[in-house]
Give the backbone structure.
Amino acid sequence: MKKNPGFGFYTFLVVFLLFILFPFYYIFLTSIRTPLEIFSTFNLYTLSPTIQNYIRAFTVRPFGRYLYNSFVVSGVTTFISIVFASFTAYAVARLKFKGKSLLLAVVLGVSMFPQIAIISPIYIFLRDMGLRNTHIGLVIPYITFSLPLAIWYLSTFFKEIPFSLEEAAKIDGASPFQAFYKVIAPLAAPGVFTTAILVFIGAWNEYLFAFTLNTDDRMRTVTVGITMFNAQYSIPWGDIAAAAVIVTVPLIVMVLLFQKRIVSGLTSGAVKG
């Protein structure tokens, strides 16, 4: 007979959720407070909510431009990484060739390089190519880190798809490419969605390359743009909190829209057979 979780379990769960969610709640609370209330009280509620912080985030600074830059850079990085990673992961997982283990080791090793260790050569390269303060100038280093991880993740999903399905498609006259995009790719869709979201979030939250390579205010991403909110003699905490809430919303919406595919992708490689 199955035992129901006891009172202690639910107590721990509630305390854990409060501990995790409190920072997000307090940031949202700060975003709807007036400057006077932010600096004068420490209440867990507000009696005079306002949306002025959100308005100032878009009117005082080019925050809309920051969002646009982040969407473009993250979207292009995700698209390129997933396309190339899908073909590479398919070859690694489904084809037999010498040096496969070495290739995977190199791929994983590249993703482990600390960003600070390669920022100087990347900066010099992009400067000489005239790609600083451009979207493509950020996409290139982002792909350097996202592509190896995407290959590693997707190769796991492709390995779980039965080889018999691909062989049946080839017997029916399908070419290797047709077998890939008509049979293998649809079955690997949950894994592809999961990997795409992880790549997008990684690019969306990246700071070091965006801060170093794009110094033009019109080309900054949201992560860097928020740090530029500070005034000369004060810190507009309300504006910063409002910007932080706005930046988080696209990621939350994305996860909610694709949560079924994400869960399916995360669990598809957990059980063999």
Residues 23-268 form a domain with the MetI-like fold fold (CATH 1.10.3720.10). The two ends are 28 Å apart (CA to CA). Residues 269-273 have pLDDT under 50 and may be disordered.
